[in-house]
């Protein structure tokens, strides 16, 4: 797998990682209520949960790519449709008023709770199914290795973004996102995801 593929994949998943959801809200709540270190423990738990998703999805997608190109193409278009749906929801959310506040609920075991938060979040599995197939090409060699590398890149960006949130909240406080900033994040993420879906539909190898 070449660098350009990993770069395009990263450009696609970063807007999704930055979009406020259960993972970010849990991590932010622990950073606000218990400090930066607790936020880092929650982040580690979330990333570990995605490790399980990665193994299951990577192995399954690799088998599909190797066994049935037609089924793989069907999954690819389901994934593109899902990205369009996500973009629509984000743009619609950007039109509604209201900021985002991280709840200040403190838990005792942030690592375990973070693990369960991501493991039991069906959206996480759908993200893998929607995006990974777009960047896998059986002509480039071992599809299992490709899937594992893409999964590792996704988890890397989760760790980077979520750790940045922990540091920011620990340093500047947990005021949350204002209405204007939340609208900007949602609209920008929605637009980038929609462009990514269009690129994947038009320029698939």
From TrEMBL:
Membrane topology: Multi-pass membrane protein
The keyword Protein transport belongs to this UniProt entry's keyword annotation: no
Signal peptide boundaries: none
Transmembrane segments: 6-28, 40-68, 115-136, 148-172, 184-203
Assigned keywords, A-Z: Cell membrane, Membrane, Transmembrane, Transmembrane helix
Major place of residence: membrane
A GO MF term: amino acid transmembrane transporter activity
UniProt GO cellular component terms: plasma membrane
The name this protein goes by in its record: LysE family translocator
Organism: Achromobacter deleyi
């Amino acid at each position: 797998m070449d660098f350009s593929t990993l770069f395009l994949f990263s450009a696609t998943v970063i807007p999704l990682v930055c979009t406020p959801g259960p993972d970010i809200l849990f991590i932010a709540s622990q950073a606000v209520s218990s400090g930066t270190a607790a936020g880092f423990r929650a982040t580690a738990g979330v990333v570990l949960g995605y490790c399980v998703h990665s193994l299951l999805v990577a192995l399954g997608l690799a088998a599909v790519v190797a066994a049935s190109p037609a089924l793989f193409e069907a999954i690819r278009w389901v994934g593109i449709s899902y990205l369009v749906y996500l973009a629509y929801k984000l743009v619609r959310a950007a039109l509604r008023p209201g900021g985002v506040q991280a709840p200040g609920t403190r838990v005792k075991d942030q690592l375990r709770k973070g693990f369960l938060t991501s493991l039991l979040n069906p959206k996480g599995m759908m993200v893998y199914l929607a995006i990974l197939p777009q960047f896998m090409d059986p002509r480039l060699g071992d599809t299992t290795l490709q899937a594992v590398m893409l999964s590792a890149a996704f988890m890397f960006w989760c760790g980077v973004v979520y750790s940045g949130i922990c540091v920011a909240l620990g340093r500047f406080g947990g005021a949350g996102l204002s209405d204007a900033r939340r609208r900007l994040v949602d609209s920008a993420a929605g637009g980038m995801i929609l462009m990514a879906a269009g690129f994947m539909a038009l320029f698939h190898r």
